[in-house]
């Protein structure tokens, strides 16, 4: 067994109604003035006001920034950081999916250390702790509340840059399953498969360890057994709790084991064609699984038995069975079948492949991959 290390430096509050603990958490962090980072969609359905009221009722000031969009940009980060300084906030609360958390993490960097978020691209470039941050996920998908990365779109390059540092981990995460029980079916589906992919890629990563395996396997069990139920009925409390916990465990798994070709390839798809991250991942998964089958060490069968509809273990397993099961899962959940269905054009493949190769996730993929391999995978997924 190879050497490895891990730590879980965060505070996680999980449970129905756990949002009520938010003022107490803020006061523990000596924060009496909050910037709440979210999006207008959550504002329009009353979720932002719900959180804002909890904060204000606790005697804490609250200013909202609601211009977060999917695949948030450098300009959005700059605008949110400017508002943080203007309102003299002392902490940041991220409410939403990965986009809101990515923006909040980046704001925390700029407020404390200045410059532009592009200055911090890459690994371990953040010089120290960011401002106190509390993450409140409203989707069971990204796991961003427990991951040390912020992904921001640099429109000048059509490129999704990553800032990766354990300094930007949210100090607290509040996981209240009630928040995901109002999600549209399409969002629940794409986010749920994204979380499943986090667990799968962490599990087959060359950087996997017994610790990350434990997190990934429990995530696959919780998500695999419940994703269809949850998409069918978001009011199913047990399914919602399982999805939120599974997403969290998957996030912890890939924070330490990294991901693979699916995520490396999905970022350029989102950057060039504004495809939602979870949708891009879900479409790419069958193609990448088929490619990685040559490097399988028996883990495909474990994954298959977690996500297959029927119970029990398969008597005679072949890796293609996992690919077909994933294709069926995507179809059941209404995920598009191909990249062409979401507007991806073949002429962009060489540029996307070059960008995908810049991702550190390529190095964690179980099968070695060249830029020509990535181009071919894109064409197969097209």
From TrEMBL:
Pfam families per record: ADH_Fe_C, Fe-ADH
PROSITE patterns, per database record: ADH_IRON_2
MF terms in GO: alcohol dehydrogenase (NAD+) activity; metal ion binding
EC number: 1.1.1.1
InterPro entries listed in its UniProt record: ADH_Fe/GldA, ADH_Fe_C, ADH_Fe_CS, Alcohol_dehydrogenase_Fe
Domain Alcohol dehydrogenase iron-type/glycerol dehydrogenase GldA: 9-177
Keyword Oxidoreductase tagged: yes
Keyword rRNA-binding: no
Residue span, Fe-containing alcohol dehydrogenase-like C-terminal domain: 189-382
Gene3D superfamilies reported for this sequence: 3.40.50.1970, Dehydroquinate synthase-like - alpha domain (1.20.1090.10)
Keywords, sorted A to Z: Oxidoreductase
Entry-linked CDD domains: Fe-ADH (cd08551)
Domain of life of the source: Bacteria
Top class in the EC scheme: oxidoreductase
Protein name: Alcohol dehydrogenase, iron-dependent
Organism per entry: [Clostridium] hylemonae DSM 15053
């Amino acid at each position: 067994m190879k050497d490895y290390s891990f730590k879980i430096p965060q505070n996680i509050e999980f449970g129905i109604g756990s949002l009520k603990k938010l003022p107490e958490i803020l006061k523990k962090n000596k924060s009496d003035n909050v910037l709440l980072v979210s999006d207008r969609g959550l504002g329009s359905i009353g979720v932002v006001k719900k959180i804002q009221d909890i904060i204000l009722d606790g005697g804490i000031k609250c200013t909202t920034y609601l211009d977060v969009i999917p695949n948030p940009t450098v300009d959005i980060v700059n605008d949110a950081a400017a508002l943080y300084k203007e309102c003299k906030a002392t902490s940041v609360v991220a409410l939403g999916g990965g986009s809101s958390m990515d923006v909040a993490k980046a704001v925390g960097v700029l407020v404390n250390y200045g410059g532009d978020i592009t200055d911090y691209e890459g690994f371990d470039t953040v010089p120290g702790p960011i401002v106190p941050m509390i993450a409140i996920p409203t989707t069971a998908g990204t796991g961003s509340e427990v991951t040390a990365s912020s992904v921001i779109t640099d429109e000048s390059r059509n490129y999704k840059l990553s800032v990766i540092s354990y300094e930007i981990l949210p100090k607290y995460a509040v996981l209240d399953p009630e928040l995901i029980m109002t999600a549209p079916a399409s969002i629940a589906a794409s986010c749920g498969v994204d979380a499943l992919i986090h667990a799968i890629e962490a599990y087959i990563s060359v950087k996997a360890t017994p610790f990350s395996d434990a997190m990934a396997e429990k995530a696959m069990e919780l998500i695999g057994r419940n994703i269809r139920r949850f998409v069918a009925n978001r009011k199913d409390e047990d399914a919602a709790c399982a999805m939120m916990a599974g997403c969290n465990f998957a996030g912890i798994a890939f924070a330490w084991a990294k991901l693979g070709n699916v995520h490396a390839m999905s970022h350029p798809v989102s950057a060039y064609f504004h495809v939602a991250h979870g949708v891009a991942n879900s479409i790419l998964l069958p193609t990448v699984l088929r490619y990685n089958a040559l490097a399988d060490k028996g883990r495909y069968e474990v994954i298959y038995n977690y996500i297959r509809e029927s119970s029990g273990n398969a008597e005679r397993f072949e890796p293609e069975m996992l690919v077909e099961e994933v294709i069926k899962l995507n179809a059941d959940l209404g995920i598009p079948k191909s990249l062409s269905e979401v507007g991806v054009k073949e002429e962009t493949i060489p540029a996307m492949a070059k960008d995908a190769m810049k991702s550190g996730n390529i190095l964690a993929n179980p099968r070695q991959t060249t830029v020509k391999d990535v181009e071919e995978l894109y064409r197969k997924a097209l």
